[in-house]
Design a protein that fits this description.
single chain; about 375 residues; alpha/beta; 7-stranded parallel sheet; 6-stranded parallel sheet; 15 helices; globular
């Protein structure tokens, strides 16, 4: 047993609502406190609401307030911070943080682990060659890499050139004790405006940014209400989260005369509570690796409709655990949402999703994999 806990610096671009940030919060709160201590180092800023998910006794939070543009001007300050913190491990998440791994190496951090949680919009729009070149360069400063999906692991091995022994497939985990199906008598979330049984609520949780494509769900909701199909008069919309598309969402709903049938509460810390109040979970993203919120919806036992991108199909067993639709197709999305409503509460796909979440994505297993990796005990044959 070491005399001092292993000090892990989690390096992120921004600490706010998001899948990779949720993983960091899980690691901080769940790794054994007698073996680990943590610093969350945000290159830009920290969302105080999301920061409330962190047990303050377990981690220090620091923000470097990086301005837009190239990262190099921030390298000297980042080096000084890492020299002061003297971590045993730096755990970077996604490309923006990977760019600081040379600094971690220069600061003498003994173990450097990078986690790849997905590709951004720029890579989807044909600029992948530049980002691929960057990943190939920065891989030399990293000891081990984590891929949250099989597809990302394959990309790291075959395209980036990471040695297979140093690629670890660790899916995102879900706390099945916190995320569970609705029980009779469960109270509603604070400020929740809808009435169970009277209203039928579709919803999503996530950043309101282009790659998450919340406007696709807005368009499907508007189309459903305008269709006049039986049952659509009961439909309501919940969009939890915030981001640059927030104003566009409000304006589109307002123009359709449906803002009063939507709930836009911003970032919330009671996501498990909110999911249990929904009748259908919708993930309209243009890209995903392994979606944390999708796993959480599965563990909640919700009917699910998601776009067929990234790791979504694998999570849902290619339709056994939820409905898949083409991306950017509001008509197909609306049709599947209507079908979920008509299937009623005894939903075989939702039951299958609940079972799979419990068997494959339990948080305890994921935490043990990261524990071994951070302590340098990981098996090198993932």
């Amino acid at each position: 047993m070491p005399s001092q806990p292993c000090h892990v610096v989690h390096l992120v671009y921004r600490f706010t609502t998001g899948g990779l940030e949720n993983v960091v919060a899980q690691l901080v709160n769940q790794l054994p406190a007698d073996r680990f201590r943590h610093t969350i180092l945000s290159l830009t800023d920290i969302d105080p609401t999301f920061a409330q998910r962190i047990d303050p006794a377990r981690a220090e939070l620091m923000a470097l307030n990086k301005p837009p543009g190239q990262p190099f001007a921030l390298y000297p300050r980042a080096w000084r911070v890492l020299r002061q913190l003297r971590p045993d491990v730096v755990h970077s998440c996604n490309l923006a943080a990977l760019e600081f791994m040379p600094v971690a190496a220069l600061a003498g951090v003994p173990l450097r682990v990078h986690a790849e949680h997905g590709m951004d919009t720029a890579e989807l729009n044909g600029k992948g060659s530049r980002y691929l070149s960057l990943r190939r360069f920065y891989r030399h400063f990293v000891h081990d890499q984590v891929a949250v999906s099989d597809a990302l692991g394959e990309y790291l091995r075959t395209r980036v050139g990471v040695a297979p022994a140093h690629v670890h497939h660790i899916p995102n985990g879900v706390d099945i004790h916190a995320f569970h199906p609705r029980q009779p008598g469960d109270p509603l979330p604070p400020n929740y405006p809808f009435v169970p049984g009277r209203d039928w609520v579709m919803g999503t949780v996530g950043r309101q940014v282009d790659i998450k494509n919340p406007l696709l769900l807005v368009d499907a909701f508007i189309a459903l209400v305008r269709s006049g199909e039986p049952g659509t008069e009961r439909m309501r919309l919940a969009l939890v989260g915030d981001g640059p598309l927030g104003q566009d969402i409000r304006e589109r709903l307002q123009a359709a005369g449906l803002l009063d049938r939507a709930w836009l509460p911003g970032v919330r810390g009671d996501v498990a509570h909110i999911l249990r109040a929904l009748d259908c979970f919708v993930l309209p993203s243009r890209s995903e690796a392994t979606s944390c919120t999708l796993q959480e919806a599965m563990a909640t036992g919700l009917p699910i409709v998601t776009t067929d991108v990234g790791g979504n199909a694998a999570l849902l067993d290619h339709g056994r655990c939820g409905a898949l639709v083409p991306t950017d197709d509001a008509t197909a999305l609306a049709a599947q949402i209507l079908q979920q409503q008509r299937q009623g509460p005894d939903h075989p796909q939702a039951a299958a999703a609940l079972t799979k979440a419990g068997q494959h994505y339990g948080l305890d297993t994921v935490i043990q994999r990261y524990r071994a990796l951070f302590l340098g005990h990981a098996d090198h044959h993932d």
